[in-house]
Amino acid sequence: MARPFQVEIHESAEYLEKSLHNARTVSQKAKLQMLWWLKSGQVKQHQEVAQRLGRNRSTITRWLQQYRQGGIEELLTIKKSPGRPREIDEQMLPRLQARLAQPEGFKSYGEIEQWVQSELGKAVKYKTVHKTVRYDLKAKLKVPRPRSIKQDPDALKLFKKTSLLPS
What we know:
Layout: H1 13-22, H2 26-40, H3 46-53, H4 57-76, H5 92-101, H6 109-120, H7 126-136, H8 153-162
Helix pairs in contact: 1-2, 3-4
């Protein structure tokens, strides 16, 4: 014989209904909907909740277990996985940032890649170096635009004086 389905919901039906309307994610809405149905007495069986929500019975069991252990706060927390650790870790970033701030800078991301290999002792892919320097550190390579050797400096000064562009 199956165990009786008994859950004591501590929050009021009005609070659950307001929270249901303010929920941001689909999973939070489903969990709050389950609690509201149980509090208002619309569902009486475990299978009925699972069927109405379109979830597996084991999912409903896990949600109710979370609610019993930590209340609504525990049920609605969104757990985030830590993810993969960075290739250029927190100890390396200040050294790289200091080197980027120097006046001579780097000429290419390949040069940065080689510097990381020699100075920090870690082989890092070009794409990782580019993403870290350009988007995480928001640094740009200090490379002047190329100039022709044959360019006449006097002609350049005359052009700047007579040009319509603001200086």
